[in-house]
Amino acid sequence: MKFKLTMIALIFAVVPSLAVAQSRIDQRQENQQKRIDQGVKSGQLTDKEAARLEKGQQRIQKMEDKAKADGKVTPEERRRIERAQDRESKRIQRESHDKQTAAKQPPARPSSRIDQRQENQQKRIDQGVKSGQLTDKEAARLQKGQQRIQKMEDKARADGKVTPEERRRIERAQDRESKRIQRETHDKQRAK
């Protein structure tokens, strides 16, 4: 009986400390992400630096997800994650305080015609999935098309402005994607 009570007491003592350690890892990930976001916003980080740091954050998140996969994070797994976070924190510090800075760019127009159309096409895909007019495969293909257009737009905006030719290319891609959405939502295939 005493043994059972001792074990129960031990479990109640250990479980909260594991939860605190886990929340500490999550909080640190969140703080490091905020530091990256602030570096981008202030211009201390270039787009390339931010992309590299984001990949580092993703690697740490994968480590954490893998550690959690069996339902618990062992002390060794936690130490490995914390060491990775230490290294990433130093990278953020180094990149934020080096001599490279992002060029100041004028803010993009928030509701440009291209952005509005992308949003509308995304809504059409979502509605098609919800109504059953689109199968999962069809929706996935259409999502990839939307992502390609977004990459075109991001590339066009990388230098701070979208030229008329870049705008025409993006709009033609949106036209093609709109026709695909129309075709896929009105074909005979239905989600089960």
Protein topology:
Layout: H1 2-42, H2 47-68, H3 75-96, H4 113-131, H5 136-157, H6 164-185
Helix pairs in contact: 1-2, 1-3, 2-3, 4-5, 4-6, 5-6
What features would you describe in this structure?
The structure is a single chain. This protein is mainly α and 192 residues long. The chain has two domains: 2-96, no CATH class; 113-185. Helices cover 77% and strands 0% of the residues. The chain has helices at 2-42, 47-68, 75-96, 113-131, 136-157, 164-185. Helix 4 runs parallel beside helix 6 (164-185). The model is unreliable at 107-111 (pLDDT under 50).
N-to-C series of helices and strands: HHHHHH
End-to-end Cα distance = 55 Å
> Outline, from the CA principal axes?
flat
Biggest sheet descriptor: none
Mean pLDDT: 82
Multimer state: single chain
Q: What is the total tally of β strands? A: 0
Going by helix content, strand content and strand pairing, the class is mainly alpha
Number of folding domains?
2
Helix residue percentage? over 70%
Give the low-confidence spans: 107-111
Tally of alpha and pi helices = 6
Portion in beta strands: under 5%
Radius of gyration: 24 Å
